[in-house]
Each structure stands twice: as C-alpha cells, then as structure tokens.
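Researcher: For the record, we're logging two predictions in this thread. I'll number them. Prediction 1 follows.
Model: Prediction 1, sequence and structure:
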Amino acid sequence: SGLTVGCDNRGGGRDATQHLLSLGRRNIAFLGSASSHYPEFHDRYRGHVAALKQGGVIPRPRLQFDAITTEESGAAAANALIASGEKFDAILAASDLIAIGAMRALAAAGLNVPEDVAVVGFDDIPAASSASPPLTTVMQDPRTAGRKLVETLIGRIREQPVGSALLPTKLVVRKSCGSGG
C-alpha cells in the first residue's frame, strides 16, 4: 500500500521564496540537492524555481549547491557559493541544519545575516529558534498532520478509498530574514 501523508514540500519552497522576493531579495541561492534522488529536497527546489518565475526572476542554476542535511554540509555549500563569485542576497536551505551551517559559514566570511544575506530553512527543528540569528523556516503543521493521519486510518478501517495526502506548510518568520522574532 503506497499510502503517504507527507508535507507539501513544493508549496513550502514556493512560500519561502515568495517571502524572500517580498523582502526585495532577487539573487536567491538554493542549498540542497535538486535531483530526483532526494524527492523532498527536489520538490522544495521546484517550488523555489516556480516562485522565482512567478516573481519575474529568471532562475539561475549556478545558484544551486548540493547539500545533505548536516550543518557541515550546509557550511560547505555556503562556502562553495561564496567562492563561486555569484551574486546572492538570500539563501533558501532545503533543511534547517543546512541553513544553520550556512549561517555559520556566512558569519565566518564576514557576511551579516540578515543585512547582507537573508536565510530561510525548512523543518522548524528546535535549534532553528535558538540559532544566531533565529532562523526563518518552513514548518509542517503537526496538528493537521495528526488529524489527516487519523482520517486516513479510519477510512482504511472502513475500507473507504483513501488517497495520499499533502499537508500544508507554514512559514515561521524570525530574524534571519530581517523581521519578526
């Protein structure tokens, strides 16, 4: 049974990028794998690209750097971005750990978050709110997730047709984007 209750990764990536665009950021780097080998990250990237196009910004593949979900990988990706010489004023990280590592690398390179570079993560892990500065991030809505899961299970028990569900995400705005928190 291929039943999944997952979060709307594409919608989350889109919302995060729309938020950065609304702050006037135009050169938004994406740190995280953008290949179908990592479907969640890939969907976040696809949402990001869709929001750029919608906002009239041409997506620049050279602003995408692979990273896995560790702080070390996030720092390495941010260092690669800095070394690339590409112009960037924001980072959307495919996970909070990548974002936290990236913020460390930016600070080490003398770049200020959020003045020079706005940063958004994904997942709203506990460390996100205590990061320096506190991280704006996309959170999955656990209440809706729980309710949907229960509905799905009851449907299963009653042998009603139930499909996979995509759960809404919510942007939690903190100081890493220059407002909130």
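Researcher: Logged. Prediction 2.
Model: Prediction 2, sequence and structure:
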Amino acid sequence: MVIKKAKMSYIPQLVEIDRSAYGKYGADKKYFEEKYSSPNTRILVVENQGMVTGFAVFELLQKDEVSLDFTDLEINTPLEDVWIHIIAFTTETNYKDVESDSKLVKAIEKETRKMGRKTFCVPL
C-alpha cells in the first residue's frame, strides 16, 4: 500500500470509489475537480498494486472559520491558528480495517505538519 498526492487523472477513480461507497450521495467529478484545483485543499490517495483504493480530501480553514459540518457544534476552546478539516475519507474497507485506514490518517497528519499546521479534525 502506497499513499501519495492525487493527480487530476485520478478523479474518475475517486468518483467511482465514493459512489460505490455512498451511492448517489458520493461526490461527483465536479466536486473533485473543484477540490483538486483549490489552493487550500489537498487530496491523498491510497494505491494498492497500481489501483487507487481510497482517498482523503482535506482543506485549510482559518481559525475563525467553521465548516458546515460543524454548524451544530459548540466549540468551547477557540482554535489558535489555521486548521485542517478532513472533508472526505473513503477507503475500500470504510473503517473496517483500522490498521490500513489509520495509515491514511497518519499520512494526513504528516502532510499537515509539512504545511506547518498542528490542528486537524475529522467529522465522523
């Protein structure tokens, strides 16, 4: 298993993976193109034997910016800096293989540190 940054050519596979996991609620080509093109968003993919089998999409948000995923949440401790919000996380096991899926989360943590950030969140 290899985890690496996505390429634009991976988008059809990402759509297929997300639609397979979530049906009509899965992300479409336009969604991934917008996220791929955004300067504040990153996409990592999981590759097994040359095939993309999972991905994570995450974005940088300002310390006072709250994602729509959190509109019902009350944040008691203010965020101190820009933070990373994991907005999509889909793998072939969809959380059933903790060891494998944890590698993707650890790769996001590593990428977050490279970007000089220390706070990130997954709305699960």
